[in-house]
Amino acid sequence: MGLYVYAVGKASEGDLPPLQGVLDRPAYRLEAASLCAIVSECPLNNVRAERKHIAATQRVLSAVNAKFDLLPMTFGTVTESEEDLRRFLNDNYEELSSQLERVSGSVEMALRLSLDVPDPIAYLVARTPALKAARDRTFRARHKPSYDDKIRLGQLFDQAFTLYRESLTARVLATIGGSSSKTIKLPIRDEKQIANLAILVPRAGLETFEAAISMATAQIDDDVVFDLSGPWPPHNFVQLNVEAA
Fold it and tell me: pTM here?
């Protein structure tokens, strides 16, 4: 029977809690030397991205991530046999061990900053004299702006918003920097979002990190909303360049 693979970790780190995984099959460790894979039996060749399967995968990963270091595998990873999976762990031992060392003792936290205002452009214009002057010049009385005028003004808006995002993000990171080890800036999702960050935080230092977030929140305008979630497995800090199991 095939195996659904949730993550790769270190062998013999302590007992796993009882876990029901995909298809309600119990999850367990499959060890190969000093590495292991968190797996459960799977009679399917392909596991569809249905809510119940996604929830089961997240349930196992969250429980393991609370205590142990892991490298989460791509959702739906299924290997044909224990032999194939052990070969994968052995063949990619150096790469997997290196990646585990990168995230050792840490979890991922997600932090998103967004403007809680109806119109982010109007908000920024009201707080940027140079941008307000440029807008007024472009739309002055009895003057219809040309296409090029509008393009230039749009570019000024984009530049000003980029600087605002970078400045605010830098202020927040300066406050929380001592409580985290690595940060990745993820793509901005919409025009109101200021920052979308993945932050690697020591598992034992989560309270310190959350206190730093509270301090950063107190230092930033009330119009900026902090959305903190986690802890998560370190998805954004795992960059495996290995062959599939």
Answer: 0.87
